[in-house]
Specification:
Blueprint lengths: L1 H22 L9 H18 L1 H12 L2 H32 L9 E5 L3 E2 L2 E2 L1 H16 L5 E4 L10 H11 L7 E4 L5 H15 L5 E6 L3 H10 L4 E6 L6 H18 L1
Parallel strand pairs: 1-4, 1-6, 4-5, 6-7
Antiparallel strand pairs: 2-3
Length: 257
């Protein structure tokens, strides 16, 4: 009995921590399907763990009636399907993170994200630093920095990205700007147009956060591009939110994209 209670308390604590992790980005103005869904599910499982006896009692009472058994089967089946989809998508995401160019000739494409008034955000800075490290090691590689201007941004993401790389010592002649896109699909499509117009290598290496690599690769394949990946590190406290958000993004574009 004590073991069961102890296990329940441990699970309750784990889901409490997950709830806090998913809520934390809200303090930085980050609110999306990832942390909303993650927080709701974490609270639900925390509640079930804490009130396990009552939960089992509710299930038992439902099981006594045909309609209740249907509800239990439907809920369990839907939950199982969601878990399977999440695991499968995550496996593909991890696989793309490890699909690196390994010295093959490519054109670097850095995907933009939010900028601040004084320069790139932390997430964008990490992407640019990853691109910089690769460009330093491969001096014959050109790079397309891709990102338009958001409604709350003073300039385009691409302009900030180019200035950052130039400040760190990358020659302007190696950098091409794509400053019209507003989403990942346009990042890839418009970058491809620049690559073709400038006669750059048609194989690309996408530089973005690891959780974002799969979606970038999906759009690259739709544009007929062979894409490799260089994942930039994501802050640990942000990773769960964006990882869960990516499940929904990939599922949406797979079905409706």
């Amino acid at each position: 009995m004590k073991v069961k209670i102890g296990f329940r308390m441990v699970m309750t604590f784990i889901f409490l921590i997950l709830t806090i992790i998913f809520i934390a980005p809200i303090g930085n103005g980050i609110v999306n399907i990832g942390n909303i869904f993650g927080a709701l599910i974490s609270v639900l499982f925390m509640t079930v763990s804490f009130f396990w006896g009552r939960f089992c009692g509710i299930v038992s009472r439902l099981w006594e009636r045909p309609v209740g058994r249907g509800i239990v089967f439907l809920s369990g089946g839907l939950f199982g399907l969601c878990v399977i989809l999440a695991v499968v998508i995550s496996c593909f995401m991890i696989a793309e993170m490890n699909d690196k160019p390994n010295g093959k000739p490519t054109t670097l494409v850095v995907l933009g994200c939010q900028i601040k008034s004084d320069g790139p955000s932390l997430m964008l800075k990490r992407r640019l630093d990853s691109a910089y490290n690769y460009l330093i090691e491969h001096e014959d590689v050109f790079v397309v920095v891709s990102g338009g201007q958001g409604k709350d941004e003073l300039t385009s993401e691409a302009d900030v990205m180019r200035n950052y790389l130039v400040t760190k010592g990358i020659s302007e002649n190696r950098i091409f700007m794509e400053d019209k896109s507003v989403n990942t699909q346009e990042n890839i499509r418009f970058s491809k147009e620049i690559i073709e117009r400038k006669g750059l290598c048609s194989d690309i290496t996408i530089v973005t956060d690891g959780f974002h690599q799969l979606r970038g690769d999906i759009f690259a394949r739709r544009e007929g591009l062979r894409a490799y990946n260089i994942p930039a590190p994501t802050a640990i406290w942000l990773l769960p939110t964006y990882w869960v958000r990516e499940w929904f993004g990939i599922a949406y574009y797979t079905v409706f994209g």
